[in-house]
């Protein structure tokens, strides 16, 4: 009996600790970018309770206890999400002990799961969070295999309980990167991708024949082929980094052959084959600010590529400056603003870093300012796509996040040195 009571008390304490920060918020008189069919709403209130959006309307009146956030003259968007980051997997790129996004283990390619290595105490989490990034897709990078491994979705919560979903997507490379890891030719890269998917399909239908201790002859390890099962069953997408237009067409053919959900990443020359991508209903992850050809596979890079793809009907998902962002993942907002400067509608650009990303990666109840959605909300002090605009308030799952980072603490510490004895320097 005592043990039952003890368990009940423990359960109640755990529940209390999980909900202790849950508050009711009423955001008043905002310009609301809903990232939904409702578009932009002026002078609108948002009621948040128990971590979810309960009402979106004008002049909401409440009798229950709540905290008012005055957003008069301000803009509100869903919390932003960067679709290609390595947040939590690298702290200092030059310090290998802080880098966990790739492996040299030849037995791990597709089976490499980065989720256990994500450091939710990384100083880069608050740095991105206070700038309006509330969620991120975290992806592996190339190791010794053409398959990089499995990514994850995270929330940038200050309580370090941010893992939303692991084994979210499978990542691979084609083009120059794929060729370099496959013997030096795109033909070899295509052969390896094609053969691996064929073998994984065979193995998933004949798995009982391959037990520990039995001989097998596959091009990939058994665990890597097992990891591709989820791709073949369309439970997760296959994200392939590819840039040249004809390489993109080859990957579309590969996806059709094996009936997998393909996402194109990078896609510098995707605009050249925009209609083909749209017909195949394949999403594209891109950074709209990239416009210079950094290799022979991106000679056709251009600043209005996002506009061309969007007009063709391609579902766009944005990442930010510095592909596979860590320190500056929040600059996805600057990239989106750049897309708008070159012709993309504002609301489409906002969707490309909110609701589109959620839909493409299967993240439910996120990405819109709408009733029933998790309350990831950012209140901005101006136009959300202007560089000089800052985030005033950030809610993640309805929890008001501290607007503090290592950078702000250093700023505050050294802002005025008059009252600091034994100062280390004189300005």
Overall description:
This protein has 427 residues and is of the alpha/beta class. It has 2 domains: 1-78 and 368-427, Roll (Urease, subunit C, domain 1), CATH 2.30.40; 80-366, TIM Barrel. The protein is built from 13 helices and 18 strands. The chain has helices spanning 2-19, 124-129, 175-180, 186-205, 222-227, 229-232, 245-258, 274-279, 305-312, 332-341, 346-351, 355-361, 406-414; strands at 25-33, 40-49, 52-57, 67-70, 75-78, 80-85, 133-138, 147-150, 152-155, 163-165, 170-173, 238-242, 262-266, 284-286, 316-318, 377-380, 391-396, 399-400. The strands form 3 sheets. Strands 1, 2, 3, 4, 5, 16, 17 and 18 form an 8-stranded mixed beta sheet that branches. Strand 13 (262-266), helix 8 and strand 14 (284-286) form a beta-alpha-beta unit. The chain is globular. The model is unreliable at 1-20 (pLDDT under 50).
Question: What order do the helices and strands come in, and which of them pair?
Answer:
Elements: H1 2-19, E1 25-33, E2 40-49, E3 52-57, E4 67-70, E5 75-78, E6 80-85, H2 124-129, E7 133-138, E8 147-150, E9 152-155, E10 163-165, E11 170-173, H3 175-180, H4 186-205, H5 222-227, H6 229-232, E12 238-242, H7 245-258, E13 262-266, H8 274-279, E14 284-286, H9 305-312, E15 316-318, H10 332-341, H11 346-351, H12 355-361, E16 377-380, E17 391-396, E18 399-400, H13 406-414
Parallel strand pairs: 1-4, 1-5, 6-7, 11-12, 12-13, 13-14, 14-15
Antiparallel strand pairs: 1-2, 2-3, 5-16, 7-9, 8-11, 9-10, 16-17, 17-18
């Amino acid at each position: 009996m005592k043990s039952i009571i003890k368990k009940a008390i423990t359960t109640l304490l755990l529940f209390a600790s999980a909900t202790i920060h849950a508050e009711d918020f009423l955001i008043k008189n905002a310009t609301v970018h809903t990232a939904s069919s409702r578009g932009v709403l002026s002078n609108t209130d948002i009621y948040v309770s128990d971590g979810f959006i309960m009402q979106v309307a004008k002049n909401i009146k409440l009798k229950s206890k709540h905290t008012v956030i005055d957003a008069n003259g301000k803009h509100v968007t869903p919390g932003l999400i960067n679709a290609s980051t390595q947040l939590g997997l690298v702290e200092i790129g030059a310090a290998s002990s802080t880098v966990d996004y790739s492996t040299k283990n030849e037995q791990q390619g597709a089976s490499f799961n980065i989720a256990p290595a994500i450091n939710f105490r990384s100083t880069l989490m608050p740095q991105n969070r206070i700038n309006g990034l509330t969620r991120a897709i975290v992806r592996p990078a190339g190791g010794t295999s053409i398959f990089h491994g499995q990514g994850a979705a995270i929330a940038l919560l200050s309580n370090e309980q941010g893992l939303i979903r692991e084994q979210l997507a499978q990542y691979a490379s084609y083009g120059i990167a794929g060729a370099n890891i496959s013997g030096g030719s795109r033909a070899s890269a295509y052969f390896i991708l094609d053969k691996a998917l064929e073998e994984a399909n065979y193995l998933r239908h004949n798995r009982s024949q391959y037990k520990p201790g039995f001989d097998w002859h596959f091009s990939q390890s058994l665990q890597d082929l097992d990891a591709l099962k989820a791709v073949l069953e369309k439970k997760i997408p296959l994200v392939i980094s590819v840039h040249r237009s004809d390489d993109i067409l080859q990957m579309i053919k590969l996806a059709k052959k094996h009936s997998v959900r393909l996402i194109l990443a990078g896609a510098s020359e995707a605009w050249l084959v925009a209609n083909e991508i749209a017909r195949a209903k394949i999403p594209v992850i891109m950074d709209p600010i990239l416009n210079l050809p950094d290799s022979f596979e991106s000679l056709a890079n251009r600043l209005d590529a996002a506009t061309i793809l969007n007009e063709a009907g391609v579902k766009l998902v944005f990442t930010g400056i510095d592909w596979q962002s860590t320190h500056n993942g929040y600059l996805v907002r600057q990239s989106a603003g750049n897309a708008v400067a070159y012709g993309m509608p504002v609301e489409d650009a906002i969707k490309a870093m909110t609701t589109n990303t959620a839909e493409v990666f299967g993240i439910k109840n996120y990405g819109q300012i709408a009733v029933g959605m998790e309350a990831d909300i950012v209140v901005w002090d101006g136009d959300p796509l202007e560089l000089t605009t800052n985030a005033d308030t950030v809610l993640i799952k309805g929890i008001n996040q501290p607007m503090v980072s290592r950078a702000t603490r250093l700023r505050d510490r050294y802002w005025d040195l008059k009252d600091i004895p034994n100062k280390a320097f004189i300005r």
